[in-house]
Amino acid sequence: MGALAQQTIELPSWAFGNSGTRFKVFAQEGVPRDPFEKVADAAQVHRYTGVAPRVSLHIPWDKTEDYAKLSAHAAEQGVTIGAINSNLFQDDDYMLGSLTHPDARVRAKAVAHHLECIDVMRATGSTDLKIWLPDGLNYPGQDNLRARQDRLAEGLAEVYAGLDPEHRIILEYKFFEPAFYSMDVPDWGTSLLHCLALGEQAMVVLDTGHHAPGTNIEFIVAQLLRAGRLGAFDFNSRFYADDDLMVGSADPFQLFRIMHEIVSSGALAPDSGVNFMLDQCHNIEPKIPGQIRSVMNVQEATAKALLVDADALHAAQQSGDVLGANGLLMDAYNTDVRPLLAELRESQGLDADPMRAYGASGYAEKIKAERVGGAQAGWGA
Ligand code: PSV
Ligand code: MN
Ligand code: MN
C-alpha cells in the first residue's frame, strides 16, 4: 500500500479542452475557456483520486499574461504546474521543420520559443521542458537526413544551455505523423542519442501511442531505465496510430507489463526521476471523468504490478521454470485490485469510488451553467 500511495500522475491541460479528429471537433458544454479553468478542472481529478497533483501546460495554448498568477491559482486548487510543453506544430514557419529546418532563421525562432518556455518554467516552478518535434520529411530527397540530425543536435544544445540546474529537457519521439517518410526523432534510440550528447539533464519521454503496432514497449522501458534516461511517460491508448485514447482502455495487459518493469526497477517513487504523465484527448466522452478513469487505470495496473511475487519470479526465472514464471505474472494481472484501491482511498479520506464521487459533486452542472459563451479553449486553441 505504501508504494501505491506514493505514485503520482500528471494531467495534460489539453485533455480538458474541446478536441476531436481532423474530421470534426465535438464541442462539449462547460469546457474551460482559459488555462485557469483548465487547472481548476484538473484539480477536480486530484480531489477525487488523490494522486494527480500536477498539470502540464502547452505553450502557446496555455499562454497567459501572468504565469506566477496561474501558478498561485494552481496552488489554491491544491495542484502544481508540471511539464511545460513547447509547440512547434502550429506555425506556418515550421512547414519544413523547426529545430531541423534548413533555414537558420527558422531554427533560431524555434530555439527562442524554447527559451521562452524556460522562462515559463521559472515563473511556474516547473522543472520539465517537454519537447516533441513534428519535424520530418514526406519524400525521399526532400532534405538531407544527416544534416537535419546535425541541426537538431545544435539547436537542442542551445536550448539545453538555457536550462537552470534543477531543470530537465525531456525529449519525446514518434515514429510517424505529421511526417510520413521520415521523422527527425522517430524512435527511442534517436532520442537517447541526443539526450546522451546533451548531458545529464536530458531524458527520454516515452509516449505509449508513438510506436509501430506490435512494438514491445516494456522492453524500451527496461532499456531506458538501465541507461538511467527514462524521464517520463505520455500515457494513452491506441488501436491504430496516435489515437490518444484513455490509457489502459484497449490493452490493460500492456500497461501492466510496462508497470511491472517500472516496479521491478524501483522506478515508481517520485524521486526515481520518472514523471508519469497522461497525454490524451477526450473527443466523445466527458473530459473530467475521462481523466479520472485514466488515472484509475494507471493505478490498477500499478497495483497489479506490485502484487507480482518478485522472489518467486526470480526463482522461477533462475530455474528455467518457463510456465511457473509466466504464471506468476498472470496471477498478479488476474487479481481484482479494485477493493484494495478502494481501501487505500478510504484510508486517505477519499471516497472509495472517484467516478461516483465526482458525478455526485455537482461540479459538471456548475461549469455548464457558469462557462457560457466566450471562446472555448481546446486542443489547438
Ligand atoms: C504528439 O503527437 C504529442 O504526443 C506530443 O506530446 C504533443 O505535445 C501532444 O501530442 C499534443 O497533444
Ligand atoms: Mn505525447
Ligand atoms: Mn502523440
TrEMBL record:
Residues 48-262 form the Xylose isomerase-like TIM barrel domain. One of its GO terms (biological process) is rhamnose catabolic process. Its EC number is 5.3.1.14. This is L-rhamnose isomerase. Pfam families: AP_endonuc_2. The keyword Ligase does not apply. The lineage of its organism: Bacteria, Bacillati, Actinomycetota, Actinomycetes, Micrococcales. It comes from the Bacteria. SUPFAM superfamilies: Xylose isomerase-like (SSF51658). Keywords: Carbohydrate metabolism, Isomerase, Manganese, Metal-binding. GO terms for molecular function: L-rhamnose isomerase activity; metal ion binding. InterPro entries: L-rhamnose_isomerase, Rhamnose_iso-rel, Xyl_isomerase-like_sf, Xyl_isomerase-like_TIM-brl.
